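Shape matters. Shown next:

___
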Amino acid sequence: MTSLKNKYFWAGIRAEFPLLIGVFPFGMIYGALAIEAGLSAVEAQMMSPIVFAGSAQFITTQLIKNTAPGFVIVLTIAVVNLRHMLYSASLAPYLASLPTRWKALLSYLLTDEAYAPSIIHYEINKLQPESHWFMLGAGLALWAIWMFSTATGILLGAAIPDSWSLDFALPLTFIAMVVPALKTRPAIAAALTAGGTALATYALPYKLGLLIAALAGIIVGTLLENKTVGARLSGDS
């Protein structure tokens, strides 16, 4: 690995490290919940490298536990993961020139936690030679911790005492990711809309509140972004 690749790779790992503190208990909770939901240890662990999406894995285990219909599980996960299309669109200008093998690898490693430090890095430093190694470092650091933490949760299972209250790590991790990225009015409006909708629809069955909240946030953010772009173009003309 050249010095420049090495520089970006380790910078990505360092930028990811603060988020890993919250990811580890998050992964442990998933592992324990997956076993509680009736998945075997192999099924629970294999979901991590195959799906590699914490929120999707959590939702899947909860819906399986609640014996939700298969189409509800698939639809809910699909809508919740629509945000990855937005992540991809915002990263595209910085990764468009990469060969297909790199795009495939980075798309697999693209998660909330990998996206947050990567987009901040690219927005500040712009497009630089070998800068895709930054996202590789961030993504691989998260992947390794997620595999280990889910395995730990599966092994410990019910042995994790309720007094540990590990569930606090999930909201704190997402707050740490979201807040630095809320720099525009559309982004802030989307976050507030999704959060408010999630609270208002919390009691709905099958976690449908998450689906509705995600759609509401995407719609509001997209409409305001289009309005902002339109106003900017009108001003330029």
